[in-house]
Design a protein that fits this description.
This protein has about 140 residues and is α+β, with helices and mostly antiparallel strands. Helix content is about 25%, strand content about 35%. It is built from 4 helices and 5 strands; from the N terminus they run βααααββββ.
Amino acid sequence: MRDFKKGDHFPSIDIPEITAEHISNYAEGSGDYASIHLDKNAAQEAGFDQPIAHGMWSMALGGKLVARWLSSNFQITSYYVSFIMPVMIGDSLIVQGQILDVDQGQAEIKVRGINQREETVIKGKMIVKGWQDEKASG
Protein backbone atom coordinates (compact mmCIF):
# COMPACT_ATOMS: atom_id res chain seq x y z
CA MET A 1 0.00 0.00 0.00
CA ARG A 2 1.25 3.46 -0.82
CA ASP A 3 0.21 6.83 0.47
CA PHE A 4 0.09 9.53 -2.16
CA LYS A 5 -0.43 13.23 -1.84
CA LYS A 6 -1.03 16.11 -4.18
CA GLY A 7 2.10 16.94 -6.15
CA ASP A 8 3.70 13.49 -5.93
CA HIS A 9 5.32 12.22 -9.14
CA PHE A 10 5.37 8.64 -10.38
CA PRO A 11 8.72 7.33 -11.65
CA SER A 12 8.62 7.80 -15.41
CA ILE A 13 8.58 5.13 -18.09
CA ASP A 14 11.47 5.78 -20.47
CA ILE A 15 11.58 4.17 -23.90
CA PRO A 16 14.89 5.22 -25.47
CA GLU A 17 13.81 4.26 -29.00
CA ILE A 18 10.47 3.18 -30.35
CA THR A 19 10.99 0.27 -32.71
CA ALA A 20 8.98 -1.51 -35.37
CA GLU A 21 8.85 -4.40 -32.88
CA HIS A 22 7.01 -2.24 -30.31
CA ILE A 23 4.45 -1.37 -32.97
CA SER A 24 4.05 -4.88 -34.37
CA ASN A 25 3.72 -6.37 -30.87
CA TYR A 26 0.94 -3.90 -30.08
CA ALA A 27 -0.75 -4.64 -33.41
CA GLU A 28 -0.73 -8.36 -32.62
CA GLY A 29 -2.06 -7.84 -29.10
CA SER A 30 -4.74 -5.36 -30.08
CA GLY A 31 -5.70 -6.67 -33.50
CA ASP A 32 -5.14 -3.17 -34.94
CA TYR A 33 -3.25 -3.83 -38.16
CA ALA A 34 -3.95 -0.45 -39.76
CA SER A 35 -1.34 0.04 -42.45
CA ILE A 36 -0.35 3.51 -41.20
CA HIS A 37 1.27 1.72 -38.25
CA LEU A 38 2.95 -1.10 -40.13
CA ASP A 39 3.71 0.00 -43.68
CA LYS A 40 6.11 2.80 -44.59
CA ASN A 41 4.40 3.51 -47.93
CA ALA A 42 0.97 3.80 -46.29
CA ALA A 43 2.41 6.10 -43.63
CA GLN A 44 4.03 8.26 -46.31
CA GLU A 45 0.76 8.45 -48.24
CA ALA A 46 -0.82 9.75 -45.02
CA GLY A 47 1.86 12.44 -44.72
CA PHE A 48 4.30 10.81 -42.30
CA ASP A 49 7.93 9.90 -42.97
CA GLN A 50 7.47 6.46 -41.47
CA PRO A 51 4.95 4.31 -39.59
CA ILE A 52 3.49 5.85 -36.46
CA ALA A 53 2.88 4.11 -33.15
CA HIS A 54 -0.69 3.35 -32.15
CA GLY A 55 -2.12 6.14 -30.02
CA MET A 56 -3.67 3.56 -27.74
CA TRP A 57 -0.21 2.03 -27.13
CA SER A 58 1.04 5.42 -25.92
CA MET A 59 -2.10 5.78 -23.81
CA ALA A 60 -1.63 2.31 -22.30
CA LEU A 61 1.79 3.34 -21.04
CA GLY A 62 0.04 5.83 -18.76
CA GLY A 63 -1.92 2.97 -17.22
CA LYS A 64 1.28 0.98 -16.83
CA LEU A 65 2.90 3.98 -15.16
CA VAL A 66 0.44 3.94 -12.28
CA ALA A 67 -0.03 0.15 -12.19
CA ARG A 68 3.60 -0.32 -11.18
CA TRP A 69 3.07 1.73 -8.02
CA LEU A 70 -0.46 0.99 -6.87
CA SER A 71 -1.88 -2.10 -5.21
CA SER A 72 -3.38 -4.85 -7.32
CA ASN A 73 -6.82 -3.63 -6.22
CA PHE A 74 -6.69 -0.23 -7.90
CA GLN A 75 -9.15 0.76 -10.62
CA ILE A 76 -8.88 3.42 -13.28
CA THR A 77 -12.39 4.85 -13.23
CA SER A 78 -11.80 7.40 -15.99
CA TYR A 79 -8.97 8.17 -18.37
CA TYR A 80 -8.96 10.90 -20.98
CA VAL A 81 -6.04 11.47 -23.33
CA SER A 82 -5.34 13.96 -26.10
CA PHE A 83 -2.99 12.81 -28.83
CA ILE A 84 -1.01 15.96 -29.62
CA MET A 85 1.61 14.66 -32.06
CA PRO A 86 2.32 11.29 -33.65
CA VAL A 87 4.91 9.01 -32.08
CA MET A 88 7.22 7.59 -34.75
CA ILE A 89 9.64 4.72 -35.08
CA GLY A 90 12.98 6.05 -33.86
CA ASP A 91 11.44 8.52 -31.41
CA SER A 92 12.08 8.25 -27.71
CA LEU A 93 9.16 8.48 -25.33
CA ILE A 94 9.06 9.44 -21.68
CA VAL A 95 5.73 8.99 -19.92
CA GLN A 96 5.31 10.95 -16.70
CA GLY A 97 2.60 11.13 -14.09
CA GLN A 98 1.79 13.49 -11.24
CA ILE A 99 -0.90 13.43 -8.57
CA LEU A 100 -3.12 16.48 -9.03
CA ASP A 101 -5.49 15.75 -6.16
CA VAL A 102 -6.38 13.08 -3.62
CA ASP A 103 -9.88 13.19 -2.16
CA GLN A 104 -12.26 10.63 -0.65
CA GLY A 105 -10.26 7.61 -1.79
CA GLN A 106 -9.73 8.82 -5.33
CA ALA A 107 -6.67 10.31 -6.95
CA GLU A 108 -6.60 12.51 -10.03
CA ILE A 109 -3.41 11.90 -12.00
CA LYS A 110 -1.98 13.98 -14.83
CA VAL A 111 -0.22 11.93 -17.51
CA ARG A 112 2.12 13.33 -20.14
CA GLY A 113 4.28 11.78 -22.84
CA ILE A 114 7.21 13.68 -24.31
CA ASN A 115 9.55 12.82 -27.16
CA GLN A 116 13.28 13.35 -27.61
CA ARG A 117 12.68 16.97 -28.65
CA GLU A 118 10.83 17.55 -25.36
CA GLU A 119 7.58 17.99 -27.30
CA THR A 120 4.41 16.84 -25.60
CA VAL A 121 2.94 14.05 -27.73
CA ILE A 122 0.16 12.89 -25.39
CA LYS A 123 -1.45 14.43 -22.34
CA GLY A 124 -4.31 13.37 -20.20
CA LYS A 125 -5.86 12.77 -16.82
CA MET A 126 -7.07 9.69 -15.05
CA ILE A 127 -9.00 9.04 -11.88
CA VAL A 128 -7.94 6.02 -9.85
CA LYS A 129 -9.37 4.50 -6.70
CA GLY A 130 -8.91 1.41 -4.59
CA TRP A 131 -5.15 1.45 -4.04
CA GLN A 132 -5.68 1.96 -0.31
CA ASP A 133 -7.86 -1.16 -0.08
CA GLU A 134 -4.88 -3.48 0.01
CA LYS A 135 -3.39 -3.39 3.50
CA ALA A 136 0.34 -3.65 3.90
CA SER A 137 1.12 -7.23 4.78
CA GLY A 138 4.74 -7.04 5.63
